[in-house]
Design goal:
Elements (H helix, E strand, L loop, with lengths): L22 H12 L4 H14 L6 E11 L5 E6 L8 E3 L10 H20 L14 E6 L19 E3 L7 E4 L18 H30 L3 H7 E11 L5 E11 L15 H14 L2 E3 L3 E3 L5 E5 L13 H9 L31 H13 L27 E3 L7 H18 L9 E12 L3 H11 L27
Antiparallel strand pairs: 1-2, 1-3, 1-13, 4-8, 4-11, 5-6, 7-8, 7-12, 9-10
Amino acid sequence: MPTLLRHGNGGPMTNTAEFPVPVGDLLGPVIRDLARRSGRDLTRWLDQVHRLGGCREPLRLTGHSTTIDAATGEVLARYSTRAEPHGQLLIRCGNRRASRCPACAETYRRDTFHLIRSGLLGGDKGVPETVRTHPRVLATFTAPSFGPVHRGPGKDGKTIVCHPRRTGPSCFTWHKNGDPNIGQPLDPETYDYTGHVLWNAHAGDLWRRFTIYLRRHMAAAAGLTRKEFGNRIRLSFAKVAEYQARGVVHFHAVIRLDGRTSGAPLAAPPAWATVELLSDAIRSAVAAVRIDAPEYGSLAWGRQVDVAPISPGVLNHKTMLTERAVAGYVAKYATKSAETSGTLDRAIKTHEMPRLHKMGIPDHTVRLIRTAWRLGCTHNRPDLAHLRLRDWAHMLGFRGHFSTRSRAYSTTLGALRQARVDYRQRLQIDRGRAFDPDTTLVLAHWKFAGQGYTPGESALAALINGGADDPVPPTSTDALPAPIDSRTEAAK
């Protein structure tokens, strides 16, 4: 039977069939195809799927590697993907979006949790335990109103009357969670779609300016010059972006004050640097930040700014805002994206613009995408060309990073990934299936060959991982894939 894969063109594979197909009709041909040469192909494919830890859209690589003794130059091992099923090696996609790959997104969420938590608790990952005594707050920054939208339940989970107005747009419905009308404009014809898209596009710059203004306002409140304040205080933060139901981003940020000394990079700040000083400066800095958008006007933060102090959980068991609770609260937003507002999780092509409604996108989101597309026309709006609005129309104009941190806040996501790689490699060395990287040199050449499973492979992988809609995420570092150069012996 001819293979179902597409080789060497770099195009994505198909994860689901475009029409209903019985699972048995998919699995039989796939199993025969994988075992066309010998049962070893099928066994190796199953082993690769197990190593992927539930990844839905694995990357397919072709290439080879050679392991050489660094001292003698002796070739210790060779590996080539030509010995793999279909001549390709599968590795995890590492996608952050839960809508694309729940397993890899769960790993990203856990990494973000540990990154946030280490900056609050200290005592690990290069952060001293003393940071628990530093002034820290959890702040939420929202966008302004671009027009009234349907409201859902309040923060306490209780349903409220949507918009019980006597004049103007009104709605007397009690919308429950999951109601598709939540976040949709009451009057789409008067909603400010241009301002909405431009605000998303400038949200990253608004945050950058806020961090500058925050330092200035704290220095002024403390009676110091900016230089004197910078020599004494370091502002550390970690933030994530989240889309609201109306399709606009807002930020959740953990902000911490550290002292600057020559002996300790994260020393305790002076006594005058208090949580109250930080909270007041955050509110005043938010009110002061402005950005002028061409042919539109001033863009600013919304009036709703929440600032809550973070207390050490072990010191005050009654507090609800403990370090672990904050880390979990912030990390859960790291894997969400614009598709939570009904848009696509990939860039939109020109030929797709006329049929957005047929793709299941809500009317409000369709208008936002078309507004971004119109503003992104470089011929008509050359002043907005730097925003690349057409490239980011699927993100409703927002092109910033969803998870960022200041340099001194805590560890990095790259360091956490490397720790898993090192752990896995030590396991392989202990089992005699890999060589010590300190005494060997790996020469490798890899080429991207595609991404994802065929429909049949996807169905078979779903059975292995416990169901297509609920893949089993990795629960330990041993379940994560090994680095490519440590698979040389395992591939034999």
